[in-house]
Amino acid sequence: MEEQVDLRVDSADSDTRLDVFLSARLGITRSSVKRLMSEGYIRIGGLEAKPALKVRPGMIVHVFKSSPAPVEETPQAQEIPVSIIFEDEYILVVEKPAGMVVHPGAGNYTGTLVNALLYHAPGMAGVGSPKRPGVVHRLDKLTSGVMVFAKTQYAYYTLAEAFKRHEHLRVYYALCYGEMPKEEGSIRTLLGRHPSDRKRMSSRVNKGRQAITHWHVDRQWKEFSLLRMRLETGRTHQIRVHLADMGRPVVGDPVYSGRKRANSIVDPLIRAHVKSLDRQMLHAYLLGLRHPHTGKWIEFTSSMPQDMLSLINLLDRT
Fold first, then answer.
1. Which residue among 143, 165, 187 closes a domain?
2. Among 256, 123, 128, which residue's Cα sits nearest to residue 201?
3. Confidence (pTM)
4. The predicted structure's pLDDT at residue 73
């Protein structure tokens, strides 16, 4: 077992940031605390801790004196059904369902899409990052749609470089609140961590990475719009942030006000339906790329999922 120190949170420290709490208890700087966290030396309940976490009375914070063994150093294959759109010896294109995490991480060490694909294609285990084999791009846990994975090292580096240079085509469908000001347009902002909530992203920052989203209105109802959105860049939460900062958050979004907005829906039937949603109405519909081996341009699509179709049908009826 790794040698460790267990620190119990007292009532006087309630609601204090974890990095502030540990800085005072350990007598070190907050930057040193953050470095220890990033290297896995600090955990709560077996999971790696985050600096901005607010501590609660009775909480036990484990500080390791030597690097703790990870829960899972590398992902393990699991027999989990997965919908495959296309496969050859170089790439694997799949439909990711909403609710499934792409690869193992804190709090999700099993049951991910990577665990499922390792069972289907064991050779992926040595491709790219050991902890994220074959992964060249990602979708949020609560976003559905088409994804590509690399099955060889050459395919991995070729696809990863293409995604880095934005040489792919990514088209999404999003159901959002409100009507758009015109039929189509573009959103160009910086995108970075939210200044007060580190789990969120924001376009209202002074420093960040350029984020460009192009949108087109497919359908509109009195209080909702169905948008077809093309990503020119692929930043974390890009579509969700851009629409939320326009005052038109994605319906059902649990992070960017999509759920709170449900209370303002006029029609009681639609309001009840939206409140029952367990994820944001965002779907990666189309992915276009050059095949890493042949260089041929190929495109793959994923049908709109049933939960989005059900809401669209309800809006049409009412």
1. 165
2. 256
3. 0.77
4. 62
